[in-house]
Amino acid sequence: MTNVNETLIPEIAEIKNIRVETPDVKTFVVLAPDGVKPFEHKPGQCAMLSVPGAGEAMFSITSSPTDTEKMEFSVKKCGSFTDFLHNCEPGQQLTVRGPYGRAFPVDTEFKSKDLLFIAGGIGLAPLRSVINYCRDKKEDYGKLDIVYGSRSKDDLVFYKEIIEQWRTDKNVNVYLTTDREQEGWDGHVGFVPNFVKELGFDTNRVAIICGPPIMIKFTVANLLDMGFEKTQIYTTMEMKMKCGVGKCGRCNIGSKYVCKDGPVFRFDELDTLPNEY
Amino acid sequence: MFKIKKDEIDKLFEKFGEAYDLFLPVGDSYKKYEKGDKQSEKYNTVRSPKDFFFPQTENMMKFKVEGKKIELTDIRTEKDDFIVFGVRACDAKSFDVLDRVFLSEPVDSYYAEKREHGIIVTEACRRPSETCFCQTFGIDPSEPGGDISVWRDNENIYFKANTGKGEKTLDNIKDLLEKADENDIKPIKEEIKKTLDRLPLKDVKTDGFGAGMTDELFERPEWDQLSRSCLGCGTCTFVCPTCQCYDIKDYKTNKGVLRYRCWDSCMYSEFTKMSAGQPRLTQKERFRQRFMHKLVYFPENNEGVFGCVGCGRCLNSCPISMNVVKVIKTLGRQK
Question: Which of A2, A54, A252 sits opposite B297 (nearest CB)?
Answer without folding.
Answer: A252
